[in-house]
């Protein structure tokens, strides 16, 4: 996935998570779960917390994979 594609997905998840969930091919196993959590978030603060946690998790996975 390119940086441009990743940025487009981020915007789509925040703007329209339902469209992302049903019409976009997921890039990893956690994408659908993250989209569902964003849809269930009660407010903007929860959405930000979910997004930070998902991003941190993905960065940690990349970090561990690069050391193998």
Structure report:
- The chain is mostly helical.
- It has 4 helices and no strands.
- It starts with a helix and ends with a helix.
* Largest sheet: number of strands, sense, barrel closure: none
Topology order in helix (H) and strand (E) letters: HHHH
Number of strands: 0
Q: Helix/strand-derived class?
A: mainly alpha
**Separate helix tally:** 4
Strand content: under 5%
Sum up the overall morphology in one term: globular
Q: Helical amount among residues, as a percent range?
A: over 70%
Oligomer: single chain
Radius of gyration: 12 Å
Taking the alpha carbons of the first and last residues, their distance comes to 21 Å
Number of domains as seen in the coordinates: 1
Summarize the structure.
With 68 residues, the chain is mainly alpha-helical. It is built from four helices and no strands.
Label this structure with key terms.
68 residues, globular
List the helices and strands and how they pair.
Blueprint: H1 3-15, H2 17-23, H3 31-40, H4 44-67
């Amino acid at each position: 996935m390119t940086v441009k594609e990743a940025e487009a997905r981020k915007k789509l998840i925040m703007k329209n998570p339902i469209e992302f969930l049903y019409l976009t091919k997921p890039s990893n196993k956690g994408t659908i779960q993250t989209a569902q959590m964003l849809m269930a978030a009660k407010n903007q603060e929860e959405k930000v917390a979910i997004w930070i946690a998902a991003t941190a998790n993905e960065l940690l996975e990349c970090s561990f994979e690069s050391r193998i």
